[in-house]
UniProtKB/TrEMBL annotation:
Residues 304-422 form the Mur ligase C-terminal domain. It comes from the Bacteria. The gene is folC. The keyword ATP-binding applies. This is Dihydrofolate synthase/folylpolyglutamate synthase. It catalyses: 10-formyltetrahydrofolyl-(gamma-L-Glu)(n) + L-glutamate + ATP = 10-formyltetrahydrofolyl-(gamma-L-Glu)(n+1) + ADP + phosphate + H(+); (6S)-5,6,7,8-tetrahydrofolyl-(gamma-L-Glu)(n) + L-glutamate + ATP = (6S)-5,6,7,8-tetrahydrofolyl-(gamma-L-Glu)(n+1) + ADP + phosphate + H(+); 7,8-dihydropteroate + L-glutamate + ATP = 7,8-dihydrofolate + ADP + phosphate + H(+); (6R)-5,10-methylenetetrahydrofolyl-(gamma-L-Glu)(n) + L-glutamate + ATP = (6R)-5,10-methylenetetrahydrofolyl-(gamma-L-Glu)(n+1) + ADP + phosphate + H(+). SUPFAM superfamilies: MurD-like peptide ligases, catalytic domain, MurD-like peptide ligases, peptide-binding domain. Functions in two distinct reactions of the de novo folate biosynthetic pathway. Catalyzes the addition of a glutamate residue to dihydropteroate (7,8-dihydropteroate or H2Pte) to form dihydrofolate (7,8-dihydrofolate monoglutamate or H2Pte-Glu). Also catalyzes successive additions of L-glutamate to tetrahydrofolate or 10-formyltetrahydrofolate or 5,10-methylenetetrahydrofolate, leading to folylpolyglutamate derivatives. Its EC number is 6.3.2.12, 6.3.2.17. It is an enzyme of class 6 (ligase). Pathway: Cofactor biosynthesis; tetrahydrofolylpolyglutamate biosynthesis; Cofactor biosynthesis; tetrahydrofolate biosynthesis; 7,8-dihydrofolate from 2-amino-4-hydroxy-6-hydroxymethyl-7,8-dihydropteridine diphosphate and 4-aminobenzoate: step 2/2. It holds the Pfam family Mur_ligase_C. It comes from Halomonas halophila. Keywords: ATP-binding, Folate biosynthesis, Ligase, Magnesium, Metal-binding, Nucleotide-binding.
Length: 448
């Protein structure tokens, strides 16, 4: 049953997609047994492990943690999901995407362990997670930063005991798997915490179950607004209103001593998440150096999160909580023309809630159809928009088709928000990348 060593990454991914009857199968028994067979539970895979869970803000927190570590000279590995254009995006080693060979070696190790005894079936995500953990252990970095894919307690990432656990925000999402009860969702997310180890709570609006679970587990709680704080340059107003002064963070280091940083730059990502990343990194055992922190926040990049490309803004936000943040950021950056939302969403997401949160910042809507079993059509989105009294400018069969249609009609003063799903943003990025790739290939042909 072992795959030939020469199998490509694409072949492996296709095989993993077809290997398990369902895409999401919450539970740790299967994945923990394979991890045990792989030796992943025999000892630490990195000097320190920070695990990040939450509904929104995970990706930005991970990105800022990685940037902080890199600027402090700390070797890193980061694991995130999903990806936008290439699977390699999910695993970064010392700031660079993992190569095909490293990923394939991980999949081969997973496959060998799956059949080392009674065969064990794994989902695409579970196999990918174990493969990434194998690659991280082979590199043995000073810090591994792991993003939880779904939930927390029963997520594949939780087979490891994190040195620092982070919970960013709690909101309703993935209701088919986590339900609609925020207290229940909070308990699931908090399941990544461990007794006697730091737990960083990155929101002041978390359900009570998060802190209660931390207490029951015996974790050391460090909560935003209590153990650590962030203050913008004008009291509680956004530091984005001025380029002067920056913002201030205060928290604690791993020994409990007070640490304070001033004149921090706007990272272009939620400041609560920036403050959370600073606190989590400090609790990992590293002393925060002010200039390194400023460089890290000023230079952090995260594709698909408030990512501007000319008059286009791309964000993978797909629930009401994320949409509220997007609307706020757009309001902070007014434009002279129209603000158009190119919206594509999956059928199991709260379209009404997302549209309602974004509506104050949007002048016109362009719903698009996504592909796949969970997709929602442009017509269905248009019906929801019109029922909510929102102006529908056009309907498109795909995000790429929507981009092409808008490209012929936008004025220089207009702007477009591309949002609603990772799939929406990925399709637009792919549409933009295709002409560049074609031109590159044409240039290569000309030199032969």
């Amino acid at each position: 049953m072992n795959e030939a060593p020469s199998a490509s990454l694409g072949n492996w991914l296709a095989r993993l997609e077809a290997a398990h009857p369902v895409s999401i199968d919450l539970g740790l028994e299967r994945v923990a047994e394979v991890a045990r067979r792989m030796g992943l539970l025999d000892g630490p895979i990195a000097g320190r492990v920070i695990t990040v869970a939450g509904t929104n803000g995970k990706g930005s927190t991970v990105a800022m943690l990685e940037s902080l570590a890199r600027e402090h000279g700390v070797g890193t590995a980061t694991y995130t999901s999903p990806h936008l254009l290439r699977y390699n995006e999910r695993l970064r080693l010392d700031g660079a995407e993992a190569g095909d060979a490293e990923l394939v070696a991980g999949f081969e190790a997973v496959e060998a362990a799956r059949f080392d005894g009674d065969p064990i079936s794994l989902t695409y995500f579970e196999a990918g997670t174990l493969g990434a953990l194998h690659a991280i252990r082979e590199r043995s970095p000073e810090l591994a930063i792991l993003e939880v894919g779904l939930g927390g307690r029963l997520d594949a990432v939780n087979v490891l005991d994190a040195d620092v656990a982070v919970v960013t925000t709690i909101a309703r999402d993935h209701a088919a798997y986590l339900g609609d009860d925020l207290e229940v969702i909070g308990r699931e997310k908090a399941g990544i915490m461990r007794a006697g180890r730091p737990a960083v709570l990155g929101s002041q609006a978390l359900p009570q179950s998060v802190a209660a679970t931390a207490e029951a587990l015996g974790a050391q709680v460090h909560a935003l607004g209590a153990a650590f704080t962030r203050v913008a340059c004008r009291g509680e107003t956004s530091c984005r209103e001025t380029g002067e002064g920056g913002w201030t963070w205060q928290g604690h280091d791993a020994e409990g001593a007070v640490a304070r940083l001033e004149a921090l730059p706007d990272p272009g990502l939620p400041l609560d998440n920036a403050a959370t990343a600073l606190q989590a990194f400090a609790l990992g055992g590293w002393m925060l150096e002010a200039e390194a922190c400023r460089r890290a926040l000023a230079g952090v990049e995260l594709p698909g999160r408030m990512q501007w490309r000319g008059q286009w803004c791309l964000d993978v936000g797909h629930n009401p909580h994320a949409a509220e943040y997007l609307a706020q950021r757009l309001a902070e950056r007014p434009c002279e023309g129209r603000t158009v939302a190119l919206l594509g969403m999956l059928a199991d997401k709260d379209a009404e809630g997302v549209i309602g949160a974004l509506a104050p910042a949007i002048d016109a809507w362009l719903p698009v159809t996504l592909e796949g079993d969970r997709a929602r059509s442009a017509e269905a989105l248009a019906a929801t928009l019109e029922a909510l009294g929102q102006p529908v400018w056009h309907r498109a069969d795909s995000p790429a088709a929507g981009v092409a249609w808008l490209g012929e009609r936008l004025s220089p003063a207009d702007r477009v928000l591309v949002c609603g799903s990772f799939f929406t943003v990925a399709d637009v990025l792919a549409a933009w990348a295709e002409p560049a790739q074609t031109a590159m290939e044409a240039g290569s042909e000309g030199t032969r």
